[in-house]
Amino acid sequence: MKKAKKNLKAAILIIGNEVLSGRTQDLNVSFISKWLNINCGISVDEVRIIPDNQKRIISNILDLSDKFNYVFTTGGIGPTHDDITSLSIAKAFKIKYEVNKEAYSILEKYYGLKNFNEARKKMAKMPKGCQLILNPSSAAPGFKIKNVFILPGVPSIIKSMIVNTKKYLVKGSTTYSKSFYLKTVESTIALELEKIQNKFLKKVDIGSYPFFKNGKVGVCIVASSVFIKEIKLCDKHITHMAHTKKISLQKN
After folding, report:
1. What is the chain's percent helix, strand, coil content, to nearest 5?
2. Are 148 and 182 found together in one domain?
């Protein structure tokens, strides 16, 4: 991983009709977001879900790659007719779409000459000059071109190969977080919580999330920041609020 920088932002582009139709439940956003934050100090700031449509892929890639430090796409790099992500990426950046020799060699070795058919050969076609993201699960590599990382859609495969994106990433500032579980309802703490957020504006992001567990109502407050000292100060304010209102509090 390269030298650290502050406030690095990423976007995730989920590509696939099956996700939009509801036939497939997306599991990749939470995994990629958490992995980037914990391992790389990069926060995901936007997520989009679009169909397998070349024009839509091109327009979204150009928009997101211009707005964010990194873009991660999932889906559409398999062997079937509707796997058009690689070609669309090449067209978006006006780069030649061709067989990547290294990818071809990996796939040929994996499948063997007899089973390395035309459909599977398609998975070796990528934008010229891209860098491979190796796949230890099913061989077919993803790739990086400019600031865009192209990954498959299968969650188990992404989990096995995302570590291979790390060498291409610049490390961002580590984000610290602390969770507070209060046995109350949001309306009871809303005004005080807003005052605390305003006090730490631009330094700490405070989220409030109601939950229901074992028939009991509660609120989880999550404080996140790149400044660990600010998290500690925020902790004191939230603890004081809970004590003043006589609300049961647990921390994590």
Report:
1. 40, 30, 30
2. no
Phi then psi for 220, rounded to 5 degrees? -105, 120
74, 153 Cβ separation under 8 angstroms: yes
Q: What angle do CA 124, 81, 27 make, to 5 degrees?
A: 80
Per the prediction, the chain carries an average pLDDT of 95
Query: Residues with Cβ < 8 Å from 118, sequence gap 6 or more?
Result: none
For 112, residues 6+ apart whose C-beta sits below 8 A from its C-beta are: none
Residue 3: pLDDT band (50, 70, 90) is low
Asked whether residue 141 falls in the same domain as residue 158, the answer is yes
Distance CA 28, CA 35 (A): 10
Strands 97-99 and 125-127: antiparallel
Statement: residue 235 has pLDDT above 90: yes
Q: How far apart are CA 89 and CA 102, in angstroms?
A: 19
Answering whether pTM is above 0.90, one says no
49 and 145 housed in the same domain:
yes
Between vectors from CA 204 to CA 168 and to CA 193, what angle results, nearest 5°?
Answer: 145
